[in-house]
Structures are given as structure tokens and as C-alpha cells.
Write a structure and sequence with these properties.
Nucleotidyltransferase, domain 5; about 25% helix; globular; five-stranded mixed sheet; disordered C terminus
Length: about 240
């Protein structure tokens, strides 16, 4: 077991936590965002000060890797790398969609053994970032950007109860009407839920290269250039 600093910035929520030996000892969150550029650094400083004041050595830094908000992920990963460089700590990454499943698995003891979990992060229009997992978080269908209609997940409904959650699931309720579809509200990716996944990665030695690790954006960010009377429109594709 270890003390791990957790940073989560993949959606409009921003949160930072410390876990020691699998137990939560510090947690700060802002659900009113996106205010990541303002609050995340403050939360990290407070977490580090808490660890220092209690003489608790930090053994690793875990960051939510995405998919999710391009800007949010960049802020979280940059802060995580800064702490790793400054304290010579290993960097762990936690898949955001698996992270969304943690509170569901912890709070929903009544989930049937054959239940499938489909976490959803809102993209745009009727598109979501999602994947399909079983209760052991084995990947049944890989992460992708899904355009949701009434047939998108139809094959899974035939043999399993399917649970949808995350901020992308709300807009899907009107089009997913199957009797085997269940929606769980209020599930947000938060740093306080990262510990089980981060502890496992640390135990297995699944550490990231601090210099070269990049968030899993799923889609590259495309920003439009401002129009001017002297130049035509165009796009900038950020690396």
C-alpha cells in the first residue's frame, strides 16, 4: 500500500485527493466548473501541504487520462507531471471511463452478476465517449466516440441488464428506451474514486513515462482561427 496523490480534471468537475493504504485522507472538489485553471493548482498545493504537515510521504501521482475535455486533461496532466518532476515520483494514469464505474460498483451492490456498465462522457450533439465493461471492469467493447440512437447498444440488451451513467447518459435517455436499459444519475469522475485503480497500477508496476505521457483525447482538438478581412477561414490542429 502507498500514499497516492490523485488529480481528476476530465470533465467540468475538478478534484484532487490523497489516499493512504487505500483510504481517503484528503479530498477537494469543485463541481461548478470548468474552473480547472483557477482551482486545480490550489487543490494540489493544499493536498501537498496536508501530506507535509502530517509527515506522510507521497509515493506516486495518479491522473485521470481521458477521454474527456481537451483543456481539462491538459491541465491535470501538466500538474501531475510537475509534482512528479519536483518530487521524483512515479506517474500513474487512470482511464476515465473505468473511473466512472468505481462509484457504481461501490454503491450498487444490487447489480446483477451479468450486468454491463456503460459510462458516458458528453461529447457534442448525440455523441458520447463510452465503452462497455462487465462488473470486473473487463472491456466488452472498446472505448469509442458513439453516435447514440435506439440501436447503438441493442445487441447488449438481449442478454444483459445494461446500466448507463455519467454526464453523457442524460441526453441518451430519450432515445434508449429498452426494458433492459437502466440509468444512474449523479455519477461524476472524481479523484476520491481513483484509489482502487491507481493502487492496482502501482502494484503491477504500470507506470507512465513522465516526459512523454499524453492524455487520451480520443479525438484531436480542432480550433477555428478568427476571421479577418485579410485572411480566409481555417483550422489549427493542436498536437
Amino acid at each position: 500500500m502507498a500514499c497516492i496523490l490523485h488529480i481528476e480534471t476530465s470533465t467540468k468537475a475538478c478534484s484532487v485527493a490523497l489516499s493512504e493504504n487505500g483510504s481517503l485522507i484528503f479530498h477537494k472538489e469543485d463541481l461548478e466548473g470548468p474552473n480547472h485553471a483557477v482551482v486545480c493548482g490550489v487543490f494540489v498545493d493544499e493536498a501537498l501541504s496536508f501530506a507535509n504537515s502530517h509527515a506522510i510521504p507521497i509515493d506516486a501521482v495518479a491522473v485521470s487520462e481521458g477521454p474527456g475535455s481537451y483543456t481539462g486533461l491538459r491541465i491535470g496532466v501538466s500538474l501531475a507531471k510537475g509534482v512528479c518532476y519536483g518530487r521524483d515520483l512515479p506517474l500513474l494514469s487512470v482511464p476515465t471511463l473505468k473511473l466512472l464505474c468505481v462509484p457504481v460498483l461501490l454503491r450498487k451492490e444490487e447489480l446483477p452478476e451479468d450486468a454491463l456498465l456503460i459510462p458516458m462522457i458528453d461529447a457534442r450533439r448525440m455523441e458520447v465517449y463510452s465503452a462497455v465493461y462487465d462488473r470486473a471492469l473487463r472491456e466488452i467493447h472498446p472505448i469509442g466516440a458513439d453516435i447514440v440512437d435506439d440501436n447503438t447498444y441493442l445487441p447488449y440488451f438481449k442478454e444483459h441488464p445494461v446500466y448507463f451513467f455519467g454526464d453523457g447518459s442524460t441526453k441518451c435517455q430519450s432515445v434508449i428506451q429498452h426494458t433492459n436499459a437502466y440509468f444512474i444519475e449523479g455519477i461524476v469522475p472524481l479523484a476520491k474514486w481513483m484509489s482502487p485503480l491507481a493502487e492496482r497500477s502501482l502494484h503491477l508496476g504500470e507506470k507512465q513515462d513522465v516526459a512523454y505521457f499524453e492524455p487520451f483525447y480520443l479525438k484531436e482538438y480542432v480550433a477555428g482561427t478568427p476571421r479577418s478581412p485579410f485572411a480566409g477561414s481555417g483550422t489549427i490542429l493542436n498536437p
